[in-house]
Design brief:
Length: 276
C-alpha cells in the first residue's frame, strides 16, 4: 500500500511517466518557503544568481527542508522504495514576461546515472500553469527508451547545453498544472520541457533532481549524494552532509564540490561550456 500517494497516482506514474498534481504543503506554507528563498536571493545575489541555481539544498536550510520534506520523501518511497538517495537540486525560476524556456529532453541523457529509474519531484512555490510556462510532459514517453538529443546552446534555453529531442508530438503533451505547495514527479526518461513565462508573475519551482535507490551508479563523475532514508547496507556513493545552518562551512564546501562535479558531468563531450 502506498503511504502518501494513492494507488491510482502510483499506477498513473508507472503508466504515463509522471504524476501531478500532488499536495505537499498548504499554500501558506509554500508562500513562507518562497519568502525564505527570496530572502536568501536578496542576501546572497551572486551565490543564487540565474547562473548559479544548482544544489542550493546543500547550503540553504529552506531548500534542504523541502528536499527532506516528509510528504515528498513519502511519495518518493511509494515509487522507488524505502532506500532513498538525493543526487541534486535546481531552482527553476522564470521571471515575469521572460523568454527562457526548457527544450524537450529526457533527464536520463545528461545526468550520468544508471539505471534510469530515478525520479524528479518539482515543487511549486508559485502557480505553475501554461501562462507561466509550466512543465509539459509527453505521456508514456518513459517507455520508449532514450531518444536522440542534439545540443542547441540556444540563448534562451535554460538547460545547460540546450539539449533537445528532435521530433516530439507536441499535440500529445500534457501541462503539469500546479498550485503553490503542490508538486509533480517525473521519471528519468520522460520527455518533458516548458515554454516561456508570459505572465506578470514570477514562476518559481524547486526540482529535486533526482531521488534514486542505492543501486544507482554515476558513470561520469563522482557519485555525490545525500542519504535521505535507509541505505544502511551501503553502496557505491559519497555522502554529503545536510546544512546545520544557512551557508555553514560544510554546506558551502559540499555545494562547491557538487557543482564542480555537475559541470564535469553535464558538459561531458559538449562543444562548449556555459556559465551554468
Ligand atoms: O522548470 C522547468 O520549466 C523545467 C524543469 C525540468 O526540466 C526538470 O525539473 O527536469
Amino acid at each position: 500500500m502506498p503511504k502518501v500517494l494513492t494507488q491510482e497516482q502510483v499506477d498513473h506514474f508507472h503508466e504515463f511517466g509522471y504524476c501531478a498534481p500532488i499536495d505537499v504543503m498548504s499554500e501558506d506554507d509554500a508562500r513562507a518557503l518562497k519568502l525564505r528563498v527570496e530572502a536568501a536571493e536578496a542576501a546572497y545575489p551572486e551565490d543564487l544568481s540565474p547562473t548559479n541555481r544548482n544544489n542550493t539544498h546543500l547550503a540553504y536550510t529552506c531548500v534542504d527542508e523541502a528536499a527532506h520534506h516528509p510528504v515528498i520523501v513519502g511519495a518518493v518511497s511509494d515509487l522507488i522504495g524505502e532506500d532513498i538517495l538525493l543526487y541534486g537540486s535546481v531552482l527553476f525560476f522564470k521571471e515575469p514576461k521572460s523568454t527562457g524556456f526548457v527544450s524537450w529532453h529526457q533527464d536520463a541523457t545528461y545526468m550520468g546515472i544508471e539505471p534510469h529509474t530515478f525520479i524528479t519531484p518539482w515543487l511549486a512555490l508559485t502557480p505553475s500553469n501554461p501562462q507561466l510556462g509550466c512543465i509539459k510532459a509527453i505521456p508514456g514517453s518513459h517507455k520508449d527508451g532514450i531518444r536522440l538529443h542534439h545540443d542547441t546552446f540556444g540563448e534562451d534555453n535554460i538547460l545547460t547545453r540546450g539539449q533537445t529531442v528532435a521530433e516530439v508530438d507536441e499535440a500529445a503533451a500534457v501541462d503539469l498544472i500546479l498550485h503553490p505547495g503542490q508538486m509533480s514527479i517525473h521519471h528519468a526518461r520522460t520527455v518533458h520541457g516548458s515554454m516561456p513565462n508570459h505572465s506578470n508573475e514570477r514562476r518559481m519551482g524547486i526540482a529535486l533532481q533526482a531521488y534514486m535507490g542505492p543501486d544507482s551508479r554515476q558513470m561520469i563523475g563522482e557519485h555525490l549524494v545525500q542519504v535521505v532514508q535507509g541505505c544502511d547496507s551501503g553502496g557505491d556513493f559519497v555522502v554529503l552532509p545536510r546544512p546545520g545552518t544557512d551557508r555553514d562551512e560544510a554546506g558551502l564546501a559540499a555545494r562547491s564540490r557538487a557543482n564542480a562535479n555537475w559541470a564535469d558531468i553535464l558538459y561531458e563531450g559538449a562543444s562548449k561550456v556555459r556559465a551554468y
